[in-house]
Write a structure and sequence with these properties.
heterodimer; A: about 80 residues; mainly alpha; B: about 500 residues; alpha/beta; six-stranded mixed sheet
Chain lengths: ~80, ~500
Amino acid sequence: MSRLHDIKTVIVENFAPDVAPDDLPDDYELIENGVLTSLSLVRLITALGERFGIDLDIADLSPQAFRTARTIDDFLATAAPDPVS
Amino acid sequence: MPSRSFLDRLARTIRERPDDRALTWTRGDLSFGELADLIDDAAAALEASVDPGDRLFVVGAKSADLVALLVAAWRNGHRVVLPSPQLGETTLAALAVQSSADRLVRLAARAAGDIGPGIPALRVAPVVGATAVSDPAAAAALSLTTSGTTGTPKIVPIPSAASTRFETWAAEAFDLGPGVRVLSYAPLNFDLSLLDVWSALSHGAEVVLVDPAEAADPAVLAGLVGGRDVHVVQGVPLLFRLLADSSGSAAFPSVRDVVLTGDRAPSDLAAHLPELFPNARVRNVYGSTETNDSVWHEVAHEHLRAAEPIPIGRPIPGAEVRVVDATGAVVPEDAAGEGELWTSTPFQSTGYAVDPGGPPRFAADPAGGPRIFFRTGDLVRRDDAGLLTLRGRQDHEVKVRGVRTNLAEVEHVLRDAEGVEDAAVLAVGDRVAGQVLHAVVQRRPGLRVDGLALRSACAQRLPRTAIPSAFTVTDLPLARTATGKLDRHAIRTAHIEETPRVPTA
């Protein structure tokens, strides 16, 4: 399983259980379309940290990084170059 | 309608046109002469079982028998309270006491195949515990009950003078008279019956009664409207949805007046009306049990086809409205604005039989005039041209992350989305956000509904806070009340498991 797929799984499990991970397009605007809100970002960051075994510092994060599954993937590539999965 | 003028008019029609058809219903048709016989029979049955002057709480299924029984009761000088027969025994008993009725009268249903001439048996019981309350309904021959989905229904006395004014207005506005056939879809305890049953009958029109047991059957409805060449159809969006479903591409050319009422018609349904009723004038009519028809708008067929929101329009002749904004200020008559709709009509009640508590719903004119206004609880927008458009219920406004959000608006957007048949949006408690929206979406048969597309549809037309956080897709029809309004309580119970609130701190 790719990291992108794992990211999608984390997103839908937590914020859109009516959607299958594979149905979530890479570029679907998560914040603009209400899947993620400012309140849910904190929970997403925690969940991603647990899933990938990395420690993300919330203070360093820009909401821009969480626009789509792809931007999250790009962001994690920088934060954790060697994904544990 | 129970006024003297109603009884006089009906008596004249019976005398002058005894062979004209008065009622069409599942157990056969009745001429005005046959209806008169049924009324006489019911009057005799009442004389044998209640005292003169008794106030009657009448429970019975919608039927020609119930129509005859009510006329007989009014002719015998009784005041009548008419609840929904669907209410549970406990609620019915409590309402009977609240209404300070003397006798509870139950009209038996006919046995299958019984099309005999007499009225079915009456079961009469004294109402125990009723107290003589200060009664604004003393002069009201008819009291209706509201159809709220929560709590005990409220008893709404309709003063006789108000009934007479309504009857006169309705007959003229919808051209009710001999040779005109009017569909009666709503239950008799709804204010809609003042138009499609009582005004129609007293003016010599024929009433085509829809049996409540068949009210959800598209084929039966189409058979009545098309097969009986009905001219006037009044109903909630649900009725028109059923007629549209029944017909495929068939039309109802006999219908010359369509009265949309009760709820906002979804745009896709409205767009269907011109082909369904090619010869009809379509009017969107807004009213309430408390004030009856109050605001209306004739909708051109092009406007219906354009699938734009349909305004409720302007006050009917003799009615006035106020739009009161969130600060309590009246939006000036000639200005655009938004707020709660207050109405005052020539047909209105003087107040509930029993004060339901809470802020008074009948109140002085907020603009300082002499009339009493009814606070509808409905939110409207008035545009520059002075046309009112319904936006939803005030009590359907919730705050999501601090932003005022109208549940009906979200539902409206979802209903217009691809593959969606119906939608309900409810506010549910959330440990973090306080309140979030949960949408329950009924999909069209055989169509796929994509939750992401639904979110995008909301995002295009609504603020971000109004995008539901959770979606449940179902194939089952969403629960609706008898008037076709969403039964939010039932939907919540059926589809939404609230996350138990874990005490924090």
